[in-house]
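Why does residue order matter? Because the sequence determines the fold. Keep that principle in mind as you read this record.
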Amino acid sequence: MTTTLSHDEFTKHCETILNEVEKAIVGKRETLQKILAVLLTSGGHVLLEDFPGLAKTLIARSFADALGLNFKRIQFTPDLMPGDITGGYVFDHKHNEFMLRQGPIFTNILLADEINRASPKTQSALLEAMQEQQVTLEGDTQGLDHPFIVIATQNPIEYEGTFPLPEAQLDRFAVRLKVGYPTPEEELEIFERRLQRQADDIALNTVVTPEEFLAMRQVVESVHVSSELQQYMIDLVNHIRKHPQVVIGVSPRGALSLLKIVRAWAAIQGRDYVIPDDIKRLAKDVFSHRIILEPSLWGSKTNTGTLVEDVLQNTAVPVASHAIES
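Structure:
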């Protein structure tokens, strides 16, 4: 029997999920909301780029626990091979035949930890899985679990022995987010919680079933985006593509990612329609890792994030109607 949810039930589920994850993560409500918005979209994958020790791994595991989804982690290293991710066929002497040994990619939420430490050949093993929700082994196509979500991490300051993600793979991440340091008050709260637990591990409850989570994705599909706001997103994309400092602009996949994520964000806020502020809040996270600047700007203070902010400030914002168009 298919599970269906109303918008009110969806909002309550979102609040319950966020409250549960916040038992482990202190003071990062907006970041957690953005991650949840990505998880609630089809083909949504997250790249967390920040310094070590900022709970990137804990965030991924906490969402998996709260959502009741299977979770696996891969530590990416220079000697990691594609088969270590996808698995492969091995000969079973007992049955005298080749048997599929599934790799860790066969899960719901896959944490690709320090993804830029593996070779491009190994990184590319994720490409088909992230886009097509399947892997091909020895010519045999294997479907992945549904949903399948990659949460990847990388350190933005250590480049020795790392391999930058190719543009084709970066484009498959719906957003690139930073976690950031906690405030002194938040860090004190982290101390107090650790003292009360008397243990490092944090036990979280499953607050929605996988069936309810998939039903939440269907609610997102009913969120309205006016024609004016659709045109606004297209204007943003085209202004970035035509910007004189841009060599490669936002792809159609990137534009679609923004469309999908702003709908999920609006639903999390308790609305069944998108407003301009939703787009302005998320555009930088969706677009910045998809842009390549002129080589002369490399090493300067100009970066893709500031360029997106500049385009947002110089693109006319429509007055969108909330009414559903017939």
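The chain has two domains: 7-213, 223-313.
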